[in-house]
Amino acid sequence: NYTLSDRVNAIQPSPTLAVSQKAAELKAAGHDVIGLGVGEPDFDTPEFIKTAAKAAIDAGHTKYTAVDGIVELKQAVIAKFKRDNQLSYEKNEILISAGGKHSIFNLLSAWLNPGDEVLIPAPYWVSYPDMAKLVGAEPKFIQAGIEQRYKITPEQLAEAITPKTRLLFLNSPSNPTGTAYRKEELMALAEVLREHPQVLIASDDMYEHILWAEFPFANIAMAAPDLKDRIVLLSGVSKAYSMTGWRIGYAAGPQPLIAAMKKIQSQSTSNPASISQYAALAALTGDQSCIDTMVQAFKLRHDYLVEALNNIPGMRCIEGDGTFYTFANIEEMMQSKGHASDIEWCAALLNDAKVALVPGSAFGAPGHCRFSFATDLDTLKEAVARIKDFATR
Ligand code: PLP
């Protein structure tokens, strides 16, 4: 009889992983399951990155590194922020971690106390609320529906901030909706944030490069440079370079905060894997055209999928700006099929049509489901055919 900590009892395992697991079980039992639940590109890691990793092993880069990452990689991250975002950081304002999620965890651990409020625009990436709870903080949600392209307004933000609010998450382009904030929209949010100096802004830019909108990428540090000392940018190589398994993420922010995050990292994981750091160094400093190849493929699939899903009775989705997800509103279909929740609908779809999706509830948006199109077009077409059949059955 194990009496576990309140800390672990307060959280749930990642629901996206739960869907993959159920799909894997059905597959193992011999069923032909189409998994559109996963959050990772289907492409292989580019060859030049793998070569750099092998070279790192041969060169003996197989020992502990500095806790906060090798100097060369920090410099590459600094150069990336200059090149892509026109932002300047010093080495002591950069922390390399074992994946984007680890960067976020370090930040929450270093910044939040029990009872502090964390503002999370919904639909949100599944992990934010539970990560906040893990450090004893209280997630508070701002709901943004399909009619506002799943983006919060300055009025909503102003209304949600309380004296206890210590952190705001922004994630653009967004997992799960695929929509991105324009610079002007971020400027409007910044205007509200200027009046609440106790609020730190965590900008999760993980999908920065997977963007095809007619407007360029912007984060809040680019939109409101005067707020830079209250902003932590969080990113990594997982999605842009198809490197989810290598586990390299990074954070950029004010020196005292980065130092505190480094202290947490030093007493938990120490440095991220040395070999992965050299691979990430190659990714950030090498030929960036590998990103374009992937983005073009994602855009083609996106265009196909959004149109095809909108042609299925009871399903509604909007054109995304980037990422490899589309978020469909299924309220009408749930009603016509007599499903009380999106969770029930997704379970029935997996069971009857053998298509695995993640229910919108996992992202704080009931009545929806998330499609990942990190899979080839033929598979997407087969999935659409199965869902159409399921919908009209
Ligand atoms: N942030 C967002 C919005 C994500 O979707 C993900 C991965 O799914 C992460 C962060 C974490 O990325 P990593 O695999 O590098 O930990």
TrEMBL record:
Signal peptide: none annotated. It holds the Pfam family Aminotran_1_2. Keywords: Aminotransferase, Pyridoxal phosphate, Transferase. Residues 32-387 form the Aminotransferase class I/classII large domain. Transmembrane segments: none annotated. Its cofactor is pyridoxal 5'-phosphate. Its EC number is 2.6.1.-. It is an enzyme of class 2 (transferase). Belongs to the class-I pyridoxal-phosphate-dependent aminotransferase family. This is Aminotransferase. It comes from Pseudidiomarina insulisalsae.
